[in-house]
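Shift notes (night). Ran Putative membrane protein insertion efficiency factor while the centrifuge was going.
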Amino acid sequence: MKTILILLVNFYKKFISPLFPPTCKYYPSCSTYMIVALRKHGVLLGLIMGIARIIRCNPFIHGGYDPVPDKFSIYRNKRAREQYRRSINLK
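Came back to this:
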């Protein structure tokens, strides 16, 4: 099942996503986040994390660096974001 979902996301990335202008506010993109979450956490938890990320991606959010956390969470990976910001000398 995990392989099928990853293939579907890759199909989206290759054939559907190029038809629209780039609008993702996060790095990595939501589709890449979904693939990593599926590989790291399995089908059920990875799918939940990917859907939560897509829901978080809206015009009212600032976006930024948000990698898949090692532990399951539907919330933004704030610790990784802060470490990244410190590594490039931002507040």
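Strands lie at 26-27, 64-65. The helical segments are 2-16, 30-56, 78-87.
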